[in-house]
Every structure is written in structure tokens, then in C-alpha cells.
């Protein structure tokens, strides 16, 4: 049985197949509308979510399956003190596959070790978010035609942003991807990402604070939200929250061919005036998230 806990659980070749399937789905979703007839997806969300949970649910419904689950810890037996291990044993009797989001790093891995069904990590604390990475990879591949030979700027909260950690983990496996890590000093990538992922894979990367200076060299700009819920002090969050605001003036410094991605939700870090720019790809990215999750559910259930 295969789970998706980290973006490295699939080889580059397996990812290629998955992204190819997602592309085929995007061209004719109706062709897949009965692939999961009779199958059930459980969404176990111990942390807030809009896109990830609903895109998983939409994905399963699009495949002809059905969905069950909870959208907050308060409305599950976690509020009574039930462990993730016990919950997953029970959910294994009710569903064929599950997606779990949890504030504790590693919780989906603990669940997978006790689970009778495939477990998908839908975000664990400030650690990883592999299905957002699948979405990001599909977006880059569809928009630019390739996952090799480009410069990506990751901007904002690189310390707590799990989407950033997973994306870096994944992109170091492609050819000639250069990284510009744009953040205030306080929110730089964790040491393990710098040393064990970037340096260990001989990736070319620089850490900078200024977004304007970085703009002209980027092919992809990946903006992120300052992760308020992971800060120890509200004052510190308030000091950081508007550090970067991407607006029309900054977009003028960028290549005509650069794309802006954002996992969403956006707070202030991208001004709404950027939304009409043809290079703004974040809403398209959210749409790709459904196709890629359809492909993932099919793959983990062995229905591809
Ligand atoms: C991200 C997350 O949950 O980490 N959201 C998402 O799943 N699209 C990014 C964020 O919350 O900032």
C-alpha cells in the first residue's frame, strides 16, 4: 500500500506519470467520471483549510466517488482526547483512502503506520505539504512546458511555510533549477532545508532580503503568506506581515515570461491589482489542484 507523506515518496519518473495523467484529466475530465464509483475518500482536517479539503472532495466527486470527514478538530473525537492512531484505525473501516491535515509535524506519518488505507499528508504543521507541491509542479509544467532549467524565487515566510519546504525538496531533483530565497532574516528557510536539501543536492541558491533586486532574474515567483498561526508572538507576526507586497510597480521589473504562483490564501502579500496581469497564475494553480488530486487518488488506489 502506498501513502503520500513527503514529496519524495514518488520518484521523478512516477511524478512524471502522475502529472501526465493530471494533464489528460484536465483535457477531458468527463472521461474519468466513473473511475472511482463506489469508492470513499475521508478528509480528516484538524486544521483550517479551504482549497486543499474542498479540492480533494471535488476531485473524488469528479471521479464518481463519495466523501466523508470532518473539517476541524473540535468536531471530531480529537476533542475528547482520541489519538490519531486510533482515529485512523476506525476510518480505515469506513473509507478507501484518506487525506489528513494536522498541526503536529509527522501526524500523518504516525497515522499511516496504523492505517489500513492509503494516507495522504494534506499538510503537517510547518513541515510538508506534498499535494500542494504536486499542484505547483503541474502549474509550472503546464505554463512553461518543463520542470528543468529555470530560476524560481520563493518569497515571504520561508521558515514556517510548509509549501515552500515541500517545493524545494521536490525541485532539487530536476535539472538546472536555481533558487532565490527571498525573506526577512527572521523568516529564512530552516537549516535542514539549506544544508540537507539545497546544499546536499548541489543546488544553486542564494538568500536575499530584497524582492525588487531579485525580480528581473526570475522565471517563477512563488509568493507566500506569513504563517500567523505558527508565530510565538503576535507582535512578531505584526512586524513581519507586510514585509513584502507584490504590486504592479514590482511586476514591471519582472520578465514578460515570468509567472506568479501562490498556494493561497493570500492576505496582503499580493495586491489585488496584480490579479489582472497575464502573469498572475495563482487562480489557475488552484484549478490544477483538482486535476492533480484526481490523478493522485487514482494512482494511490491503483486505478490509473
Ligand atoms: C497553504 C497551507 O495550508 O500550507 N495553503 C494551501 O493548502 N493552499 C498555504 C498557507 O496556508 O499559507
Descriptive report:
It is a single chain. The chain is an alpha/beta fold and 304 residues long. Helices cover 38% and strands 15% of the residues. The chain is built from eleven helices and nine strands. The protein has helices spanning 12-27, 51-62, 84-94, 107-114, 130-144, 162-171, 191-199, 211-214, 234-240, 248-251, 282-300; strands spanning 40-45, 66-70, 97-102, 119-124, 150-155, 177-182, 204-208, 220-223, 259-261. The strands form two sheets. A five-stranded parallel β-sheet has the order 7-6-5-8-9, with helices on one face. A four-stranded parallel β-sheet has the order 2-1-3-4, with helices on both faces. Helix 4 links the parallel strand 3 (97-102) and strand 4 (119-124). Helix 1 (12-27) packs across helix 5 (130-144), helix 2 (51-62) crosses helix 11 and helix 5 (130-144) crosses helix 6. The mean pLDDT is 97. The structure holds N-carbamoyl-L-aspartate (NCD). Residues 51-52, 123, 129, 132, 162-163, 225, 263-265 line the site of N-carbamoyl-L-aspartate.
Whole-number mean pLDDT: 97
Q: Give the terminus-to-terminus CA distance.
A: 15 Å
* Poorly predicted ranges: none
Structural class: alpha/beta
Number of helices: 11
What is the gyration radius calculated from CA atoms? 19 Å
Summarize, please.
By secondary structure, the chain is an alpha/beta fold. It is 38% helix and 15% strand. Bound molecules: N-carbamoyl-L-aspartate.
